[in-house]
Amino acid sequence: MGGLGRRGLLIAGAGALAGCSGSSAGGSGSDGTGRGGTSAPTPTAATGGAQPPSAPTGGVQPSGASTGGAQPSSGPKGGASAGVSSSAATETVPGPTTPRTPTVALPSVRLWTPGAGEIEPAAKRVAVAAVEELLRPRGTRGVVEVIDAQYGGILSDTASVLVPCRIYTISGGRVLTSGTTVDVRLTKTRGTWRVTATHPAQPGKAATNLSSAARQVLASGRITLPPASAADIRSGQVHDSVLTTMLQLAKTYRIGISVIRSGHPIDVFGTNRPSDHPKGRAFDTWQINGHAVVSPSTSRSLVTSYMRAAENLGSYNVGGPYQLSGTAYFSDRTHHDHIHAGFKP
Ligand SMILES: [Zn+2]
């Protein structure tokens, strides 16, 4: 499992949620190519304060459809105070005549911490801290939930860490849910990982017509999608081979998706070879039946059975933490923390 972070209620400071202003219609995800020549010197999130120019405010997608999805349980609060004292009791009497201002609470989110099985946990810590600062709601109460931190690529002294997030804010007495996935580029110098660039996902506009498979995946209670991945599907740019495979896998497994299209490097990290992700022909799974792929306590057979199932369902390229026999399978350090399934045109 991922970090058993303690529950925390983070309430962030002030300033309107800038991200809502520019819902970008951009086509593909990050434009940082694997070699990173162009994106290098972005003076970004390492120290926090300033918004890096490479991080368009549109990165925070107001995933409208799911607005208000996570209703916090604000109700029990009254119950707790009811038995406390007479003052609490008298408070309740004039209730009906006082204006109703419902107390809305932000959901509690788990703090992300690297678990035991992580490769180079320091790189992920640095990346997550940068994303939390980049996405922290300003001007409103809000909290960033880091869903996962997975490698887009890890080499000896460079890395891409993909960080899918949900962002909860309160507006008009309601909890709004948005979020994005950020591709964080890092380099290691003298033993220390530093952020060199951040690329928020750009899923593109929602399509007017979606395939049946797309609608089924979006509606599935057994497929958990980060906001950027849900937006990818709503954009109509995810191929049906990906979607139908997810639906079939979900008959057997509850699956946690980390990345589909947006938020992923354009090229396979460290190469010039185009990744299948930006084409909408691949998906990554970070969690199966509630168990993180990266965790040493997750059963190997659960992971390998999922990899084999993905191959049986048509994936020509299945990567994971274990090398299986067969031409479709691969394993490397990058795929230590998730299962990749790619599909041919
Ligand atoms: Zn992948």
Largest sheet: 7 strands, mixed
List the ions, cofactors and other small molecules found in this model.
zinc ion
Structural classification: alpha+beta
Strand content: 15-25%
What distinguishing features does this structure have?
345 residues; alpha+beta; Muramoyl-pentapeptide Carboxypeptidase, domain 2; 2 domains; seven-stranded mixed beta sheet; five-stranded antiparallel beta sheet; 14 strands; 23% strand; binds zinc ion
What is this structure, in a nutshell?
By secondary structure, the chain is of the alpha+beta class. The chain is built from seven helices and 14 strands.
Q: What's the topology here?
A:
Blueprint: E1 7-8, H1 76-82, H2 86-92, E2 109-110, H3 121-135, E3 142-146, E4 150-154, E5 158-171, E6 174-189, E7 192-200, H4 212-219, E8 223-224, H5 227-234, H6 240-252, E9 255-259, E10 282-288, E11 291-292, H7 300-312, E12 317-320, E13 329-331, E14 339-342
Parallel strand pairs: 8-9, 12-13
Antiparallel strand pairs: 1-2, 3-5, 4-5, 5-6, 6-7, 9-10, 10-11, 10-14, 12-14
Helix pairs in contact: 4-6
Bound molecules: zinc ion.
Residues 277, 282, 284, 340 line the site of zinc ion (ZN).
Write structural notes for this entry.
- By secondary structure, the protein is of the alpha+beta class.
- Helix 4 crosses helix 6.
- 21% of the residues lie in helices and 23% in strands.
- It is globular and about 60 Å long.
- It has two domains: 7-68 and 106-200, no CATH class; 212-342, 2-Layer Sandwich (Muramoyl-pentapeptide Carboxypeptidase, domain 2), CATH 3.30.1380.
- Strands 8, 9, 10, 11, 12, 13 and 14 form a seven-stranded mixed β-sheet that branches. Strands 3, 4, 5, 6 and 7 form a five-stranded antiparallel β-sheet that branches.
- Residues 277, 282, 284, 340 line the site of zinc ion (ZN).
